[in-house]
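Hey all, quick one. A colleague (J.T.) asked me to put the flavin-adenine dinucleotide job into the tracker so the inputs and the structure tokens live in one place instead of scattered across chat threads. No bug as far as I know, just bookkeeping. Sequence used:
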Amino acid sequence: MANREGRRFVIVGNGAAGSTCAQTLRQEDPSCQVTLITDEPYPLYNRVTLPRMLKNEVPASRVFLKTVAWHAEAGIRFLPETRVARISVEEHTVLTAAGAEIPWDALLVATGGRPNRLEAPGGDALNCLNFQYYDDTVALSEQIEHSRSAVAVGGSFIAYELAEAFHVRGLDVTWLIRGPRWLRRILDEEGGALVDAIAAAHGVHVLHGQEVDHVVVRDGVATGVVTTGGHMLDCQLVGSGLGLTMNTELMADTGVRTGKGILTDRHLATNVPGIFAAGDIAEYEDEITGHHHLMGTWDNALAHGRVAALNMLGGQEPYVDVPTYQSGLFDTIISVLGVTPETLPEAISLTRCDVAARSYRKLFFNEDRLVGAVLIGSVKGKKRLMDMIRQHARLASEKERQALLQ
Ligand SMILES: Cc1cc2nc3c(=O)[nH]c(=O)nc-3n(C[C@H](O)[C@H](O)[C@H](O)COP(=O)(O)OP(=O)(O)OC[C@H]3O[C@@H](n4cnc5c(N)ncnc54)[C@H](O)[C@@H]3O)c2cc1C
């Protein structure tokens, strides 16, 4: 790839996507200028390790992946605690909240999402917390020390992580899920029942089909949760995993097209020349489905960061990957591959569930092509499924499709 003397690259957001982009730009073009901006006070840390930190399984020091000094040594201008307030396409600059103007020749927006707050009355009490940032983890951990019981709210992976961590830290836990089951768009009734059974075996009480009516607050502190189903739950901690709102506000007045996130093509370029998006915020055109969608995984953010960097340097690299998300599920694991009805509602599914063996396998097809899967318990055959999704393999007969469930 040809070097472009002194090209100025600016990256907003220092998560997995932004940091990888900065590092790749530096590696590929020693002469360029790279500025990496974040409103958080820290260098890159691993969000995926935060649940383990919350469970006291790893010390806080193990969460950090880079140091401030690393950036100086790598020749990356790192600006922590710096909020970007505006992007000017005409001037080719970003304007920080403190009033500094930073020029760019190419810009990456990797601003991710912010957690949705618990909107119910009382949801703003001091001990009603989200779980997205390092600082959230510290706050949750401190509150656990002063709690006997907790309520985890939400039907997402983050709500599960909270329920599990509260349990591991010795609290009495109620897990409140608004929908009929956890991951309601991905699992079906049988899968949901299996997850409930696994949670119950760990002493976590799961309540479905109801949400927080209000939080009982005394002197600014939550002392309980009343559910819409009429349950009164005493607690000293409420942890919410209610999804993310994407930080797209910077796109206002830029002409960049947005949906839930920032719309990009398969090269992670937006419709405005010179502006790219990567990671959780990128609503990218997916090779597998041909649709635009968001993908909130660590590996996706890393790979996006690299591809965006190559294209900011003038390349034409497409992003082609089978996204995967693997998580603990109390004493077993759940693995989600490819795309699911969350991003492809018209997907057709086949399921096999063995409650006694705690094994669940659900496959998603777009017409006769395997596009995704969810596995609980055994991940036998995962690599083969990944290969089939990647190769756009066609499975014309029902027999062939059923065979994949075994
Ligand atoms: C607790 C937890 C557990 C997870 N577990 C897993 C897992 O097991 N497996 C998995 O694959 N994924 C997991 N994820 C998801 C994964 O961590 C994310 O998909 C990934 O980190 C997203 O990276 P990103 O770079 O796109 O965005 P982010 O990491 O969200 O980074 C965006 C950054 O931009 C900053 N920012 C936003 N706006 C501005 C602005 N205007 N100016 C300056 N800075 C700004 C934000 O503060 C943030 O620091 C987990 C996430 C969490 C929170």
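Adding what we noticed when we looked at it: The domain at 118-240 is CATH 3.50.50.60 (FAD/NAD(P)-binding domain). The first strand starts at residue 8 and ends at 12.
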